[in-house]
UniProtKB/TrEMBL annotation:
Coiled coil: none annotated. Keywords: NADP. This is NmrA-like domain-containing protein. Gene3D superfamilies: NAD(P)-binding Rossmann-like Domain, UDP-galactose 4-epimerase, domain 1. Pfam families: NmrA (PF05368). It comes from Penicillium desertorum. The keyword Membrane does not apply. GO terms for cellular component: nucleus. Residues 5-237 form the NmrA-like domain. Belongs to the NmrA-type oxidoreductase family. The keyword Cytoplasm does not apply.
Length: 320
């Protein structure tokens, strides 16, 4: 019997990293190791309770990374663009952290690297829309593709469905980024990455768009109202600049809207959000769910997501 392949999830206590870790954990083919800066944090404690192996490793510390990456088959990385230092441009940029992790993986002869990236907004808009997090993620991806891995793969997400119920985004009228919303359920993201690690060479230098469903914001509103039997949700396109909690976040959300307007809703690197992208994602989902021993499962739909969440969230959405 062969030994399980070690996958290191850098920053595994976050939403995307956690999704990847939970999916891989169900497959005995893999040994899942999570890194965390603070092993005593509530998120880290919860991961340990769920049976995960956590190792303290700061992503700025090459020596700590080297220890945890030794013997790894693959690495998953999602840098935290919402880190206040990154957002406010204090200290080294997000791209510097990504390069440190990539270099550490190369030194440990890691073969396969999966990165959670973002659209190449600066290039696609001919420099008219520069978004700090997008630019830094693009720099990391460009660096990773040339680093020397047998396969470097981007698995990029659309609009996470879970965001609809975040306190800061509880008013749909703030959601006016474009004609299409490429919606992702967090569980589906982890399954997409899982499927890539099963056949990483197949996806070398490929960008996968992790999309669970395709719908406009008006579709989301209509579905919510239909399922709850109310008319409390509404979509009112904003024409004025948006405001967020900090100057850095305000700049980012306006940049995101400007990008989506520039590409006319074609968020996925200026590709039409077609059935092809959704079919690719559903194929990955099918491969991963079978590997997890869960039989067949399709990607989450807006209807299905709201059926699970709208009844218990209705009170918090009453101001919409």
């Amino acid at each position: 019997m062969t030994s399980p392949k070690k996958i290191v999830v850098v920053g595994g206590t976050g939403m995307f990293g956690g999704s990847v870790a939970r999916s891989l954990k169900d497959n005995p083919e893999f040994e899942v190791v999570l890194t965390t800066r603070d092993p005593n944090s509530p998120k880290a404690s919860k991961c340990r309770e769920e049976g995960f192996l956590l190792v303290k490793a700061n992503s700025w510390n090459a020596a700590e990374l080297g220890l945890v990456l030794a013997g790894a088959y693959g690495v998953f990385l999602n840098t935290d663009s919402d880190d206040l230092n990154f957002k406010n441009e204090v200290g080294p940029p997000e791209s510097a952290m990504g390069k440190i992790v990539i270099d550490a993986a190369i030194r440990q002869n890691v073969k396969y690297f999966v990165f959670s990236g973002l659209p190449q907004s600066n290039r696609l808009t001919n420099g008219e829309v520069s978004i700090l997090s997008f630019d830094n993620k693009t720099a990391i991806a460009n660096y990773g593709r040339k680093a020397g891995f047998e396969a470097f793969v981007e698995v990029n997400c659309g609009w996470a469905m879970d965001i609809f119920f975040m306190e800061t985004l509880s008013e749909f009228e703030d959601l006016s980024y474009g004609a299409d919303s490429m919606d992702l359920r967090g569980d589906d993201y982890g399954d997409a990455v899982h499927a890539v690690f099963l056949e990483p060479s197949k996806y070398a230098n490929h960008i996968i768009w992790a999309i669970s469903d395709v719908a406009s914001f008006q579709d989301v509103v209509d579905t919510y109202n239909r399922l709850t039997g109310t008319q409390v949700a509404r979509f009112v396109p904003q024409t004025e600049p948006l405001k967020a909690s900090t100057p850095g976040k305000t700049k980012e959300v306006n940049g995101l809207r400007n990008y989506c307007h520039y590409v006319q809703g074609k968020y996925c690197n200026n590709q039409v959000t077609s059935g092809r992208l959704l079919r690719e994602m559903r194929a990955l989902k099918a491969v991963a769910t079978e590997a997890r021993g869960k039989g067949h499962a399709s990607t989450q739909s807006i209807d299905g997501f709201l059926r699970e969440n709208a009844p218990v969230k209705l009170q918090s959405m009453s101001k919409i």
